[in-house]
């Protein structure tokens, strides 16, 4: 038997079939044949170049055979094949034969790359290449990244282009050509076809943006570059199709002409005029970009002419005034307004004006307020005027721009003189202080001068002083001297602070006045002794002594903290008193009185002690305090009345004394009322009219 195998065939793809015949019944196992490859000659480059299907007898290449098959190394192989019936069992009959295999070359190879021009006119489809499998029957298909049906292949292996190509969308294609058997099994490895797309000048140059904005200075010289525009062409950059030429085709406003130019090759826009001074504030240019074929597009360039500070501000006149202003004019009054004009573009920094008072305002009586919308400056009063001190002001005002001058300089026209006369007005008195604080020791002798209110009149008129708010008439003030005195001795415990108002009136015009507050602080003097506060007659102490039981004694001192801050309790220097009783301070004003011994006989005791203040020397009060001592039950209540204190009245005697006292007082009141009701008033005589107070009609 003879067969041939093509170079490039994949492993496992049968290239021939060995056939054998068995005369036994085909429907029985007697005719069930099995094939086996016994030997390969020669055994180069491998002893296992081929394999055979044991059931079908199909011969194919092994993996080694597919990868190493080479007709130049070995162009013919002889294969010894054995066939057995009975499915190859041990009792089967067998037969053998020789298969001669010729190794042949193949036309299955990658075709040459194809270069196609984009936008081919057709007609379509257009054949562009062809492949051929030279062995058994085969079918072809194409794979790759391209639109469906853009490329197709016929049964004969002819590859077609079915639609125009666009290089700007995809400039090349890598197409894989697959060869398969009719049953869909791949015969050989795919081959590649590279399709390159040639450029045609089919794209117009375009600008990345439709409008550009740029600025050129007013004093820019000829040749100053202001902007570069660049258009892009999607054609092949390796061809002349992307060469772009630029032109300036429009200018708005059109006059004056030839202000700008654009470089034909680079797209650089520059100033062509000698100067931009005096031109419009803005220009709109139209620039076109065109390729060699004439395809073009355009953009607009908005050029803003930036004003430069080449004009100093100038006053319309050198002197202003004189202006008159009364000396009582209120702060914030506008004296006048002036303007320094600037020829630069209105609203810009070069047009704005900063004004400054160069001289005549050393005391900062005036200030300048500029209207940023008009550049007009107002001269405003910032301090109170005084005709007697200064009656005339000569102010020098300068005007400059906030940005530096690029041409020219500030001269005399950028300064002006303003003359102001202050008119005299009768002014009210002025007090040296808005508030006086005075201290006086309580109890001081009346009539002492405690303060002198000082004032002056700018017009040298006399000043009269008076008091307001001193309702109790504790103070007086000298009508012309302003001396404040006490009329009576003052008591700090009655009132520690007095506040009143001193009125100073112009002696020639009572409508003009000034006022000041006077606060008089009364200084404390230790003139009050401390006193015991509270009723202790109903309180008691238990005997025998109870732990922690005590009478809480309270005291008070009407003086201030300096003298009556801490009050001290002390027992009389008597051995018995100090043995029986104990004083324990609680705070500055309270102390505990308790038994100092475990037991004291029940009765009412007099406990002598002294309360002293903290002044130096201290003021003291001696106290004899009756204290009840009694036996107590478990709840701490007295079980029996204590013995009456010697010399103390009984309850019965106290009630009798009170009743007798009330009887005497009642009798006296009855007699007085009866006498008044029956007494006729006498008419005053002419000789004693001075004794009767005057009747005042209101």
Oligomer: single chain
- The secondary-structure class comes to mainly beta
Percent range for β-strand residues: 35-45%
Major beta-sheet overview: 4 strands, mixed
Over all CA atoms, what is the radius of gyration?
Answer: 66 Å
What does this structure look like?
With 698 residues, the chain is mostly beta strands. 6% of the residues lie in helices and 40% in strands. It has four helices and 46 strands. The strands form 13 sheets. The chain has a four-stranded mixed β-sheet, with no helix packed on it. The chain has a four-stranded mixed β-sheet with strand order 8-14-13-10, with no helix packed on it. Strand 43 and strand 44 (590-595) form a beta hairpin. The chain starts with a strand and ends in a 20-residue tail after the last helix.
Structure summarized in a few sentences:
It contains 4 helices and 46 strands.
Task: Detail the topology: elements first, then pairings.
Elements: E1 2-6, E2 14-17, E3 34-41, E4 50-52, E5 58-61, H1 63-68, E6 76-84, E7 94-104, E8 114-117, E9 126-130, E10 139-143, E11 151-153, E12 158-161, E13 172-180, E14 191-198, E15 211-217, E16 225-228, E17 244-252, E18 260-262, E19 268-271, E20 282-291, E21 296-306, E22 314-315, E23 319-326, E24 334-341, E25 354-359, E26 366-370, E27 376-381, E28 392-400, E29 415-423, E30 430-431, E31 435-441, E32 449-452, E33 455-456, E34 463-468, E35 475-477, E36 483-486, E37 497-506, E38 513-523, E39 531-533, E40 540-542, E41 551-556, H2 561-564, E42 568-571, H3 575-580, E43 581-585, E44 590-595, E45 603-612, E46 620-630, H4 651-678
Parallel strand pairs: 1-7, 8-14, 15-21, 23-29, 31-38, 40-46
Antiparallel strand pairs: 2-5, 3-6, 4-5, 6-7, 9-12, 10-13, 11-12, 13-14, 16-19, 17-20, 18-19, 20-21, 22-24, 24-27, 25-28, 26-27, 28-29, 30-33, 32-36, 34-37, 35-36, 37-38, 39-41, 41-44, 42-45, 43-44, 45-46
């Amino acid at each position: 038997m003879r067969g041939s195998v093509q170079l490039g065939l994949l492993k496992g793809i049968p290239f021939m079939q060995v056939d054998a015949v068995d005369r036994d019944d085909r429907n029985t196992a007697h005719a069930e044949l099995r094939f086996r490859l016994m030997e390969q000659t020669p055994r180069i480059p491998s002893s296992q170049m081929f394999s055979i299907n044991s059931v079908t007898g199909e011969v194919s290449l092994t993996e080694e055979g597919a990868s190493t098959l080479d007709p130049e190394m070995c162009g013919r192989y002889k294969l010894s094949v054995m066939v057995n019936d009975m499915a190859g069992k041990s009792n089967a009959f067998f037969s053998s034969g020789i298969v001669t295999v010729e190794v042949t070359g193949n036309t299955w190879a990658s075709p040459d790359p194809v270069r196609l021009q984009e936008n081919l006119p057709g007609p379509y489809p257009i054949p562009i290449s062809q492949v051929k499998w030279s062995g058994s029957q085969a079918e072809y298909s194409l794979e790759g990244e391209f639109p469906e049906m853009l490329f197709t292949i016929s049964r004969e292996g002819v590859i077609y282009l079915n639609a125009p190509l666009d290089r700007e969308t995809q400039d090349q294609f890598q197409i894989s050509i697959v060869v398969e058997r009719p049953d869909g099994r791949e015969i050989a490895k795919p081959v590649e076809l590279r399709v390159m797309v040639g450029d045609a000048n089919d794209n117009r140059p375009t600008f990345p943006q439709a409008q550009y904005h740029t600025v050129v200075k007013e004093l820019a010289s000829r040749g100053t570059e202001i902007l570069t525009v660049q258009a892009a062409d999607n054609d092949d950059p390796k061809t002349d199709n992307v060469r772009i030429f630029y032109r300036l085709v429009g200018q708005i406003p059109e006059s004056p002409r030839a202000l700008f130019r654009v470089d034909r090759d680079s797209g650089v826009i520059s100033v062509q005029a000698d100067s931009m001074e005096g031109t419009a504030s803005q220009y709109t240019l139209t620039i076109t970009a065109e390729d060699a074929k004439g395809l073009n597009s355009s953009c607009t360039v908005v050029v803003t002419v930036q004003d430069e500070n080449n004009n100093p501000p100038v006053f319309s006149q050198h002197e202003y005034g004189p202006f008159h202003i009364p000396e009582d004019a209120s702060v914030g009054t506008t004296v006048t307004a002036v303007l320094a004009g600037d020829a630069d573009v209105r609203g810009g920094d070069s047009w704005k004006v900063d004004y400054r008072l160069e001289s005549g305002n050393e005391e900062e009586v005036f200030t300048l307020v500029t209207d940023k919308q008009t550049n007009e400056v107002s001269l405003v009063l910032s301090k109170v005027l005084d005709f007697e001190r200064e009656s005339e002001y000569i102010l020098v005002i300068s005007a400059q721009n906030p940005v530096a001058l690029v041409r020219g300089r500030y001269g005399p026209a950028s300064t002006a003189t303003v003359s102001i006369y202050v008119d005299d007005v009768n002014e009210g008195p002025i007090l040296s202080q808005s508030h006086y604080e005075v201290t006086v020791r309580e109890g001081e002798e009346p009539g002492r001068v405690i303060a002198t209110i000082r004032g002056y009149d700018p017009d040298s008129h006399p000043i009269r002083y008076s008091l307001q708010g001193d309702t109790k008439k504790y103070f007086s003030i000298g009508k012309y001297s302003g001396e404040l005195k006490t009329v009576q001795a003052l008591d700090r415990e009655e009132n520690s602070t007095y506040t009143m108002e001193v009125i100073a009136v112009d002696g020639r015009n009572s409508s003009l006045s000034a006022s000041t507050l006077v606060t008089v602080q009364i200084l404390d003097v230790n003139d009050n002794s401390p006193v015991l506060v509270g009723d202790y007659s109903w309180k008691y102490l238990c005997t025998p002594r109870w732990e922690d039981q005590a009478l809480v004694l309270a005291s008070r001192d009407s003086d201030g903290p300096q003298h009556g801050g801490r009050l001290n309790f002390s027992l009389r220097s008597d051995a018995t008193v100090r043995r029986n009783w104990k004083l324990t301070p609680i705070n500055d004003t309270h102390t505990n009185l308790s038994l100092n011994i475990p037991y004291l006989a029940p009765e009412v005791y007099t406990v002598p002690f002294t309360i002293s203040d903290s002044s130096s020397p201290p003021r003291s009060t001696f106290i004899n305090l009756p204290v009840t001592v009694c036996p107590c039950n478990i709840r701490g209540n007295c079980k029996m009345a204590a013995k009456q204190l010697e010399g103390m009245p009984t309850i019965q005697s106290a009630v009798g004394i009170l009743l007798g006292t009330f009887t005497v007082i009642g009798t006296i009141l009855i007699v007085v009322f009866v006498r008044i009701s029956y007494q006729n008033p006498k008419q005053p005589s002419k000789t004693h009219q001075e004794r009767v107070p005057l009747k005042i009609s209101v």
